[in-house]
Automatic annotation (TrEMBL):
Coiled coil: none annotated. GO terms for molecular function: nucleic acid binding; RNA-directed DNA polymerase activity; RNA-DNA hybrid ribonuclease activity. The keyword Cell membrane does not apply. It comes from Arabidopsis suecica (Swedish thale-cress). Keywords: Nucleotidyltransferase, RNA-directed DNA polymerase, Transferase. The keyword Transferase applies. This is Reverse transcriptase zinc-binding domain. Residues 274-393 form the RNase H type-1 domain. Residues 94-166 form the Reverse transcriptase zinc-binding domain. Signal peptide: none annotated. Pfam families: RVT_3 (PF13456), zf-RVT (PF13966).
Length: 403
């Protein structure tokens, strides 16, 4: 048990303390003293040096793998790092870098099969006549519907068969086909189509299903010698779209997990809510925490602020650290900490190593062992408004270091 707070021990002997150095204040003083040396010798690293948050309780130095959040190397992170700088091999159909793969394909409200089909087509990997001939596969490369050269642009837009399919599409206003010169432009224009209400597919996109159904009709013509009319093709597209959307509506929604509720069973347990407010421009943070106890209605609060804070996650961790020190100084033995940073709470509870929180996380866990009972919980932001207000007010009073 700590009988005298660390804050009192760091006071000079003349003021009733023992003259112990407060490591953070001492570190700041040394940095201020040596700032001129840093600017002269390592000016390009001044910002990084000032943002170093060393452990106050002896966390060992260690190497960190920067591409990984945890700082620990994994084959997966190594693989993605190795391919990051590799130039993409040339494509048969060049794809401009500004194409929005996420919005125009992967986030479409359609089946994974059709998303993959669109992606494959965009990448020039669909086995149409032109692509087969490019790969030196013996084929006439002719469209099965009209006999013209089969390209993706022709098959899905300019062929008379495709033209009749699009003309029959149940949409409010169809795009101008004469102004579309590539499959990419078709994707970008077709996503703006609005289906008519009788379709029964709501705001779901119709164009992926139309393109997919044209492909199905093409394959049936080639491999089964079956002729599917444009009207049957568009009917199939609407039917497939409706069937898939109805299946999504009937699926039970996945439960939303926001973490265990903050339940204080022991009346003697002190509840502590913490929060941090971080300024990216100033690289500074304000911290706020409030203690409460339902048994005797205890309410105490604390605030602090500091500079050279590199991220909001680090700021949240420092807020918890300050609250723990304050709780120890006040003599609390049973404590329940709540923070609205889910990432921080998960790191504390799992004791997961992380390069960003290496020193501060070690100190939080070390201080936690001095309490008889302690727990850490995630709380939604709306339940953390008092601590949030304290942190923001503390940040407002921050005065930047003179340069």
């Amino acid at each position: 048990m700590c009988w005298i707070s660390w804050g009192k021990l760091t006071k000079s002997k003349a003021k009733g303390g023992l003259g112990f150095r407060d490591l953070q204040s001492f570190n700041d003083a040394l940095l201020a003293k040596d700032r001129g040396k840093i600017q002269n010798l390592l000016p390009e690293y001044e910002k990084e040096i000032l943002e170093i948050r060393v452990s106050k309780l002896g966390a060992s130095d260690s190497y960190a793998w920067l591409p990984s959040k945890t700082g620990v190397y994994s084959a997966k992170s190594g693989y993605y790092e190795s391919i990051k700088e590799e130039p993409e091999p040339s494509q048969q159909q060049p794809i401009q870098e500004d194409f929005n793969w996420s919005a125009d394909i992967w986030k479409l409200k359609t089946s994974l099969k059709t998303k993959y089909f669109l992606w494959k087509t965009m990448r020039g990997a669909l086995p149409v006549g032109e692509n087969l001939r490019t790969r030196q596969i013996n084929t006439e490369a002719k469209c099965p519907f009209c006999g013209a050269e089969e390209t993706t642009h022709h098959l899905f837009l300019t062929c008379t068969f495709a033209t009749e399919v699009w003309d029959a599409a149940p949409v409010k206003t169809l795009f101008n086909r004469t102004r579309i010169s590539s499959f990419r432009e078709l994707i970008e224009k077709a996503k703006l189509l609005q289906s008519l209400p009788p379709c029964g597919i709501g705001d779901g996109p119709i164009h992926p299903w139309i393109i997919w159904s044209i492909w199905l009709s093409r394959n049936k013509k080639i491999f089964n010698d079956r002729i599917i009319s444009p009207r049957e093709t568009i009917t199939q597209a609407v039917s497939l779209a409706r069937e898939w959307l109805n299946a999504q509506l009937s699926a039970p929604p996945a439960p939303i997990q926001i973490g265990p509720p903050l339940v204080i069973a022991d009346p003697s347990t002190i509840s502590c809510h913490t929060d941090a407010a971080w300024s990216e421009e100033l690289k500074a943070a304000g911290y706020g925490w409030i203690f409460s106890n339902r048994r005797d209605g205890l309410h105490r609060a604390g605030t602090d602020r500091s500079s050279h804070i590199r991220s909001p996650l680090l700021a949240e961790a420092i807020a918890v650290h300050h609250a723990l020190i304050n709780a120890s100084d006040l003599g609390f033995s049973n404590l329940s900490i709540a923070s609205d940073s889910k990432q921080l709470i998960e790191a504390i509870n799992s004791e997961t190593p992380t390069k960003e929180l290496h020193g501060i996380l070690h100190d939080i866990l070390k201080i936690s062992t001095t309490f008889r009972k302690i727990s850490f919980h995630f709380t939604p932001r709306e339940n953390n408004r008092v601590a949030d207000s304290l942190a923001k007010n503390s940040l407002k009073s921050f005065v930047p270091d003179p340069v």
